[in-house]
Automatic annotation (TrEMBL):
The keyword Metal-binding does not apply. PANTHER family: ALKANESULFONATE MONOOXYGENASE, ALKANESULFONATE MONOOXYGENASE-RELATED. One of its GO terms (molecular function) is monooxygenase activity. Keywords: Flavoprotein, FMN, Monooxygenase, Oxidoreductase. It holds the Pfam family Bac_luciferase. It comes from Azorhizobium oxalatiphilum. InterPro entries: Luciferase-like_dom (IPR011251), Luciferase-like_sf (IPR036661), SsuD_RutA_monooxygenase (IPR050172). It comes from the Bacteria. This is Luciferase-like domain-containing protein. Residues 28-352 form the Luciferase-like domain.
Length: 383
């Protein structure tokens, strides 16, 4: 099958994505749509998986000028990752959540993670559903297409895990079909290796060529897929969560990703997920962090790490168990000035945006908006 690519929404100057990309540093919020958020710690907090809580966070982020909000997808059995928290047992679906948020917001981009290779997904389903959400949101909807790395997840759908690079080959065909459906003025017939369509058609047409396309990866196969298809790529630190090690490793990692995109004739942006612990002083931030760690739900941490160890993800190889209590891809701990300084340095590595998360989301997001955002604006990272 010949893959035909549609224009990126970034190619339309008035699209929500193009407007967001005018920012020197993209700013996103990683929504806690699962209980415990990113931190298997029992320290009391407001963080909650419910739709109403995440709606309030999204509206606050939009009011603060954030460019996007994002929800992960996971398939976990009873008790989640275990422990006293039953970490992440309770979770709402990101696709449905984003659909609901699209009619409650006006500017912010809304990105949903979807495991396109699990269960009943067909390219025609996703093409139609996402075209509809593109219409409802005015071009603010995006899809983080993931292939799934954990062997127990596909078993929930009655299938077995597909080999790592083969998953990306299937995803490549999947998204190629979806892009053709979005762009075609006529019925589409495709006899692909993995999917077939006969006289298929999708309306309404996406407003700016297609929805925003995203993927999260750290492997060579994932980078090649991103180079061909994605507008935004969520990357992980190849050196683990410790910020100084990440800052040293990221320039070559990001350069590799962007070189692959340029070789494909495209430009993509790299985003990373910092877990931010910020207080008025470094001493207070360190005390807050120490309290989070002191309340670690050890059984939940072990369950989470075992889940990752059983999979074949190549993005988290150097992430250690002791960092999972707080969570996040990288961790930034300190005063507002120290947090802003680390974000400035992340930008200097070639990172185009950050997708922030917090331990106690509501008050921590408020403090980030009050104390850190003005510093980022002073530094020229936010307009």
């Amino acid at each position: 099958m010949t893959v035909r690519f549609t224009p990126s929404p970034a190619d339309f100057p008035d699209s929500p994505l193009a407007q967001a990309l005018r920012q020197p540093l993209l700013l996103g919020l990683f929504l806690p749509i699962q209980n415990g958020g990113w931190s298997p710690s029992t320290l009391p907090r407001t963080t909650d998986w419910s739709f109403d809580y995440n709606k309030a966070l999204t509206l606050k982020a939009e009011a603060l000028g954030f460019d996007l909000a994002f929800g992960l997808a996971q398939w976990i059995g009873k008790d989640g990752y275990g422990g006293a928290l039953k970490y992440r047992e309770q979770t709402i679906d990101p696709f449905v959540t984003v659909a609901a948020l699209s009619s409650l917001t006006s500017r912010i981009l809304l990105i949903s993670t979807i495991h396109v290779l699990y269960g009943p997904w067909h390219p025609l389903h996703l093409a139609k559903f996402s075209a509809t959400l593109d219409h409802v949101s005015g071009g603010r909807f995006g899809i983080n297409m993931v292939t799934g790395y954990a062997p127990r997840e596909p078993r929930m759908f009655g299938t077995t895990q597909i080999e790592h690079d083969e998953r990306y080959a299937r995803a490549d065909e999947f998204v190629g079909i979806v892009e053709r459906l979005w762009s075609s003025n006529e019925n589409v017939t495709i006899d692909g290796r993995y999917w077939k369509l006969e006289e298929a058609f999708v309306s309404p047409r996406p407003k700016y060529g297609r929805p925003v396309l995203v993927n999260a990866t750290g492997s060579a196969a994932g980078f090649d897929y991103a180079a061909r298809h994605s507008d935004l790529v969520f990357i992980t630190s190849p050196a683990g969560a410790e910020i100084e090690a990440a800052l040293a490793a990221l320039p070559a990692h990001v350069a590799n990703l962007k070189a692959r995109a340029r070789a494909a004739g495209r430009e993509i942006r790299a985003l990373i997920n910092p877990m931010i612990v910020c207080r008025p002083t470094e001493k207070e931030a360190r005390a807050y962090h120490a309290a989070i760690i002191a309340h670690a739900d050890t059984e939940a941490v072990q369950g989470f790490m075992a889940h990752h160890a059983a999979g074949d993800s190549q993005a988290w190889k150097n992430h250690k168990g002791e960092h999972r209590v707080l969570g996040g891809n990288i961790q930034i701990i300190g005063s507002p000035e120290q947090v802003a300084e680390k974000i400035i340095r992340l930008k200097q590595t070639g990172i185009d945006g950050i997708q922030v998360a917090f331990f106690d989301f509501q008050p921590d997001l408020d403090f980030f908006g009050e104390a850190v955002l003005p510093l980022l604006k002073q530094a020229g990272l936010r307009l």
